Amino acid sequence: xxxxxxxxxxxxxxxxxxxxxxxxxxxxxxxxxxxxxxxxxxxxxxxxxxxxxxxxxxxxxxxxxxxxxxxxxxxxxxxxxxxxxxxxxxxxxxxxxxxxxxx
Length: 103
Known about the structure:
This protein is of the alpha+beta class and 103 residues long. It has one domain. The chain contains three helices and four strands; from the N terminus they run αβαββαβ. The chain has helices spanning 2-17, 35-49, 73-82; strands spanning 28-29, 50-59, 62-71, 86-87. The strands form two sheets. Strands 1-4 form a two-stranded antiparallel sheet.
C-alpha cells in the first residue's frame, strides 16, 4: 500500500511540477478608453500578432510534422501600445475564458 501511495504521489508531483505556471494576464488601460473599445483593439492586435509555425522531424526515413499558429507577445504588446494603451494593474483584461497564450 505504501508503495502505491509513493508511486501515485511521485506521479502527481512529476506531472504538476514540470508544467510552468501560466503567464500572468496582461491588463491594459487607456485614458478615456472604454472596455468595448479595448475589446475591439485587442481583437485587431491579436489578429496582427498571429504567426504561422511549422515543425518537422525526420530520422531514418520516418518522421512527423505539425503546424499551427502562435501569437507573438512582442507584436501584441507593441500593437496595443501604438493604440495608446499602457499595462496597468487596474486596467482592462480579457473576458472570462478569453485569455490568449503568447510566445
